[in-house]
């Protein structure tokens, strides 16, 4: 796990990397790389190196990333990015039996949006999304809504669907659960989602002056999907 011995999570990782046919490309915003409690290293530790490739940056073009460009043009490649044009992953998995490649953007929602829309390569693959069926267990970091998941959780759910193996999700979530439990035992606080705080009058930060951000908060309070 590459963590100090006192906070080692290796006992919670699978003894051997999971055998999966799906290859993940994690497009990581540079700001995520420096976070202490990020989840992508735990995800990578659960999978074979050739099945979890991490690319750090904001801009990706064909000249600098020819392998990624080839991947994006592959008809079996999927990109996990929710929106009006996205298909539920369960439906795609039922229709296809071919080994897939999945791209997942690792960053805050605004960072992910910036990467998605400013890189034409990422609009080539088929866009998919997950049904909001579970709540995030990454309780030591604030999420925008109750159904937002960390990158590790998204990958765990997606792989279990694509590989048709529910145990994959449980195995990948195990080190995340251990991480959060350890942090809570050593003084960390449970972070409710921004949606939860707003609805229950617990949001103690100044409201944004930016009208667009203020409108997003109003939508969260009123259960409008954003």
3D architecture notes:
InterPro entries: DTW (IPR005636), DTWD2/TAPT (IPR039262). It catalyses: a uridine in tRNA + S-adenosyl-L-methionine = a 3-[(3S)-3-amino-3-carboxypropyl]uridine in tRNA + S-methyl-5'-thioadenosine + H(+). One of its GO terms (molecular function) is tRNA-uridine aminocarboxypropyltransferase activity. Residues 192-198 have low confidence and may be disordered. The protein has a six-stranded parallel beta sheet, with helices on both faces. The two termini are 35 Å apart. With 226 residues, the protein is an alpha/beta fold. Helix 6 (151-162) runs antiparallel to helix 7. It is globular and about 45 Å long. The chain has helices at residues 30-33, 40-46, 66-73, 89-95, 109-117, 151-162, 166-185, 194-199, 211-221; strands at 23-28, 52-56, 77-80, 87-88, 101-106, 126-129. It folds into two domains: 5-185, Alpha/beta knot (3-Layer(aba) Sandwich), CATH 3.40.1280; 192-222, no CATH class.
Counting H and I runs of at least 4 residues, what is the number of helices?
9
Q: SSE order in H/E notation?
A: EHHEHEEHEHEHHHH
Terminal-residue CA separation: 35 Å
Give the number of domains: 2
Overall pLDDT: 78
Q: Give me the side-by-side strand order of the main sheet.
A: 2-1-5-3-6-4
User: What is the name of the CATH class of the largest domain?
Assistant: Alpha Beta
Fraction of residues in β-strands: 5-15%
CATH topology of the largest domain: Alpha/beta knot
Spans where pLDDT lies below 50 across 5 or more residues:
192-198
Helix content: 25-40%
Provide the structure class.
Answer: alpha/beta
User: Looking at the structure, what is the overall shape?
Assistant: globular
DSSP strand count: 6
What's the CATH architecture of the largest domain?
3-Layer(aba) Sandwich
* Major sheet details: 6 strands, parallel
What value does the Rg take, in angstroms? Answer: 18 Å
């Amino acid at each position: 796990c590459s963590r100090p011995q006192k906070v080692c999570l290796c006992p919670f990782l699978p003894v051997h990397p999971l055998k999966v046919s799906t290859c993940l490309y994690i497009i990581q915003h540079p700001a995520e790389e420096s976070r202490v409690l990020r989840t992508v290293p735990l995800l990578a530790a659960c999978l074979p190196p050739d099945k979890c490739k991490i690319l750090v940056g904001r801009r990706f073009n064909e000249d600098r990333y020819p392998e990624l460009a080839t991947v994006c043009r592959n008809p079996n490649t999927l990109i996990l990015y929710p929106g009006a044009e996205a298909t539920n992953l369960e439906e795609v998995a039922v229709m296809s039996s071919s080994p897939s490649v999945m791209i997942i953007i690792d960053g805050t929602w605004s960072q992910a949006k910036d990467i998605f829309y400013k890189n034409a390569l990422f609009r080539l693959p088929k866009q998919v999304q997950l049904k909001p069926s579970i709540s995030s267990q990454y309780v030591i970091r604030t999420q925008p809504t109750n159904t937002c998941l960390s990158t590790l959780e998204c990958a765990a759910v997606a792989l279990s669907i694509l590989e048709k193996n529910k145990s994959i999700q449980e195995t990948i979530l195990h080190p995340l659960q251990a991480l959060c439990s350890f942090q809570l035992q050593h003084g960390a606080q449970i972070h409710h989602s921004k949606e939860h705080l707003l609805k229950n009058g617990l949001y103690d930060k100044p409201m944004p002056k930016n009208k667009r951000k203020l409108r997003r908060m109003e939508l969260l309070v009123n259960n409008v999907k954003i």
